[in-house]
Write a structure and sequence with these properties.
Blueprint: E1 6-11, H1 20-24, E2 27-32, E3 35-42, E4 50-53, E5 67-69, E6 79-81, H2 83-96, H3 101-112, E7 123-124, E8 164-169, E9 186-192, E10 206-207, E11 214-215, E12 218-219, H4 224-241
Antiparallel strand pairs: 1-2, 2-3, 3-4, 4-5, 5-6, 7-8, 8-9, 9-10, 11-12
């Protein structure tokens, strides 16, 4: 379920050059109640919209925001995804997903089960039957429908010591054990060998092309490790813009 209200969080001073009085002043910013890592700011480009961002910086930079929403709490129909943010997100995942402890555990589990299906977005394999969710997820880019597209269309994890692929998935809607995540919840995939090691050392991350920032199950949910990496990258981009 989406947030029913907003919560408050204290944002740090913008820079050390501020006066002592400014540094001691408390500034309050809003976050989504069900996702305290996402900050909410008025969108200066539109009187009726709000920007959603992983950075507490005020005023926010629209180019680094997750997207803009005409409703709070946001819905699949109200949120317009920011393509620049999605590009940064997938760039970070391509560089760091294989280092995520949760993703590593999936790779090891796949090797121990000879490529059989895993829960919580685990190894993906030829689907004999598809669950149907219907329409209602969206907001910007990505492929709709029940087909996973992209990496998910490539086939499944290989049994018999052949290795295969595992999904890197959004945590907002973990699948039942033995099922893969919904296409709109899958960021991408990593290739794993028969011993559970990432192929070429990184797994060669492949964007699924089907991920949606928001669905009826919630909004962007990253693991703690990957969220930190994304925030670090956003801060780097923000610093470049201020030079």
């Amino acid at each position: 379920m989406f947030a029913r209200a907003l919560r408050s969080a204290t944002a740090p001073p913008l820079s050390k050059s501020h006066t002592l009085r400014t540094c001691l002043r408390v500034r309050w910013v809003s976050t989504l109640q069900d996702n305290p890592h996402i900050y909410v700011f008025p969108d200066e480009r539109s009187l009726n919209n709000n920007l959603l961002t992983l950075l507490p910086t005020s005023p926010p930079n629209a180019d680094l925001a997750i997207g803009s929403t005409s409703k709070l709490p946001p819905t699949p129909d109200s949120l317009l995804e920011n393509p620049k943010f999605l590009s940064i997100l997938h760039s970070v995942l391509a560089k760091h997903a294989y280092e995520d402890p949760y993703v590593i555990s999936q790779a090891q589990a796949m090797a121990s089960t000879s490529g059989s299906s895993l829960g919580s977005g685990g190894a993906f394999f030829p689907q004999k039957g598809k669950r149907r969710r219907g329409s209602g997820y969206g907001g910007g880019g990505g492929a709709g429908g029940d087909g996973a597209g992209g990496a998910s269309a490539q086939g499944g994890a290989g049994g018999g010591g052949r290795g295969g692929f595992i999904h890197v998935s959004d945590a907002r809607s973990p699948p039942d054990y033995g099922r893969i995540a919904w296409p709109e919840d899958i960021f991408g995939s990593l290739e794993v060998d028969a011993e559970g090691n990432f192929v070429d050392g990184t797994g060669n991350y492949q964007n699924s092309g089907s991920y949606r920032v928001i669905t009826r199950d919630g909004i962007l949910g990253l693991s703690p490790y990957l969220r930190e990496r994304v925030v670090d990258r956003l801060k780097e981009e923000e610093s470049k813009m201020h030079r």
